[in-house]
Amino acid sequence: MFTIENIKALEKLSTPAYVYDLPLLRKNISVALNESKKYGYKIHYAIKANNNPRILEEIQKLGLGADCVSGQEIDLAVRSGFKTNEIVFAGVGKTDKEIQTALKHQIFAFNVESVQELEVIGEWALVLKLPASIALRINPNVDAKTHHYITTGLDENKFGVLSHELDRCLEIIKENEYLNFKGLHFHVGSQIMDLSVFRRLCLKVNEWNEWFYERGVEVPVLNLGGGLGVNYEKADEEAIAEFEAFFAIFNQFLEPKEHQEIHFELGRSLVASCGSLLSRVLYIKNGLKKNFAILDAGMTELLRPALYQAFHKIECLDERESDNMVSYDVVGPICESSDCFGKEVLLPELKRGSLMAIRTAGAYGEVMSSRYNLREELTFYFKE
Ligand code: LLP
Fold first, then answer.
1. Which of 90, 97, 96 is nearest to 114 (CA)?
2. Domain that holds residue 321
3. Complex ipTM, two decimals?
4. Largest CB tally within 10 Å, which of 182, 332, 340, 367?
5. Residue 12: inside a domain, yes or no?
6. Ligand 1 pocket residue status of 73, Cβ below 6 Å
7. In this protein, which residues make up the domain named Orn/DAP/Arg decarboxylase 2 N-terminal (predicted)?
8. 204 shares a domain with 321
9. Whose CA is nearest to atom 16 of ligand 1?
């Protein structure tokens, strides 16, 4: 990771800024690839986790496919060099324009989330005379045991085709010569630390696989989605996700048919550890009950703590250890009380200008930033 020496070596360090450690990104992804290749699995990178062009360039070079959730992400993936036949497209609200974009690029598969969406894709495929490959997203009703905002695989969630609609979906595909059935798609949530969730997912997938098999429908691909969590408590270089155990579970519990391909869509576990948000202390305010360290970064640069009460490690890069440790609420400058990175964080005594790093911010950090309060554009640094 970045040491204070190499960060300070950055001339005229401007904050707030994201710094990305590209060697750590490459190391992380090579672990994921080695583990997945043991079983012949294919990984698509979930671009929504981080769409920084430099990050995409690295990931594309390593040979991953791309999982996109908008027409713009598809265009960006193509511009970044991802192969069009290795792009999948998910999302419950694909617009006509996005469907056309995906058809034009002849992507690997639409991950379809409703009957009506399937009909619309079919209509556009006929109009444009361009074939569309379809994977049906099934909601397996598996509890991801994660924050309820990022749980997607329960009956009460908006994702996926309902099970009683699957026969209708197969009929629509059969009736339209431009629609090809490519397989099944599942994704039960994100930041999943309890790996038994994936065992339960496998058991459900086996049941659905059997359901199609019994109807004589060939399922070329099973896409198991993403969701593997990272340990935000650890130092970034140690926050490598449990890729070995993750893929081993699928190898042990999934029962694919002969020639079935197994795909994944990983986001966070590939990119979270390589990014930190750098910020300087603007002011220290010693209140009656609390000390506040007010940073020049806020929820506009990293929304996760405000939105999900997510934990991110906060460090002072000028001085890591001190005899004089002080408890601070580390907050941002935005006019919202939720604009807080951490409460009662023990840190060396801070002063105006202290350089701070908020760790493990490479996933769902930059991409969820906003210009609320008309904030300035972010700055980026890369460790090559
Ligand atoms: N596939 C689908 C269909 C998804 O919806 C997602 C993430 C992924 C794959 C990638 O999941 P991952 O491997 O990154 O867990 N903003 C939240 C996370 C939202 C995840 C949305 N879907 C956060 O900051 O925690």
1. 90
2. 273-383
3. 0.99
4. 332
5. no
6. no
7. 40-272
8. no
9. 364
